[in-house]
Amino acid sequence: MTQHRRYSGLKVGALAVPTIAALVLTGCSASAGSNSSAGGSQEFSLSFATSNTIESPFQVLAEKYMKSNPNVKITFNPQPNDSYDQTLRTQLQAGNASDVVVTAPGSGTGRSILPLVQAGFLEPLDDAAKKLVPTGSEALFGTDGKVYGQAPEITVVGMVANETAAKASGIADFPSDFSSLQEQCKTLESSGKSFFALAGSAAPNTGLMAMSLAASRVYAEDPKWNEKRTAKETTFAGSDGWKASLEAVTKLNDAGCFQKGAAGAGFDAITKGLASGTSVAGFIPGPSWKQLKSAAADSDFDVRGLPAEQSSDKGFVFASANYAFSINAASKNKDAAKAFLDWAAQPEQTKAFAEIDGALPVSGLDSYDFNSGAYKNVGDLIKGGKYGPLPNSQWPNSAVYDALATGVQGLITGQKTADQVLQAMDAAWDQ
């Protein structure tokens, strides 16, 4: 079993799909017809979320499988990321969801494994899937010793930075603390640029920013904070760390860290800002570096953690098994679907998936070479075990994250305070 730091929640869920482009691919979902006789032609369908114009790694991997197995036909049913959760749930309830669906470990989103298992929508998987569950996150992939999701990669979440644009803007070294970051923001703003490109109108991006700020302020000091909230030993409103995290949003806004018009901007603002170099960094999943590279071949992109309050504070980054392949319990093509998942679990395929998506491999991470490439700046944190899951993987329902994401939008427009947002999160947790 792949060894990772023992945290009990690992996922980005809806946030993990690279959210950096303006256009989305759409598709309708329908379960493929029954398989032919054993040894003959086999087929199944695959649904996944997408929010960019670049081919999905799920589709690339599946196409590789078809090339290696000419008797297999896979029907692709991509869905827009912002509506994927609702679409998946509706199709599962109607009985016409794809045979293989992309889910997320935990319980914090509409596509999360645990609520889908509780509703009876997912099929138990075999030992090949169990071996890929990161140590300590078994409870997020199933119940009663059963596993209902197969992790294909490890995603690092912090910020993705255009290193070339940073140097061109006079940033010789990235800010090592929050005060230095604010000063750098003011300097860039005076030259017509911004440190961050933010999709302020998109709740997934504003929520991800807030959770990224909470990495060093909450979870570096207390990685079991979620467990304490579950046990009612603390609250969001009573947490100094969470209050500091949301106050940091206001400080970034006041320092001019976001591009002009950020409050109304969509995901295209991140693509354009980082690819053109008018913004230096964005709050997006690590694999987005590869997609940005394809849009700006002359620029180098790296994955970094956010500066903490003080340079002496503990460094921390989120790294998680964020996606999972799951099989629809109502599928008529389970044998073909399971054969695909067994193939995808092989080390050669997990390595290939990570390379396709620009992520870290779900197997072999302990021996991964961080000295070069996009993850060199977070290598010491990963090797030192100074990482954990995005918080919402253990939150009891998606309403908690919704309260955070929409609340942060209110912080940026000045319509809400940090205390109001935290109180709303507590209310959503306890509902």
Automatic annotation (TrEMBL):
Pfam families: SBP_bac_1. InterPro entries: Bact_solute-bd_prot1 (IPR050490), SBP (IPR006059). Residues 1-32 form the signal peptide. Keywords: Signal. PANTHER family: ARABINOSE-BINDING PROTEIN-RELATED, DIACETYLCHITOBIOSE BINDING PROTEIN DASA. This is Sugar ABC transporter substrate-binding protein. It comes from Arthrobacter humicola.
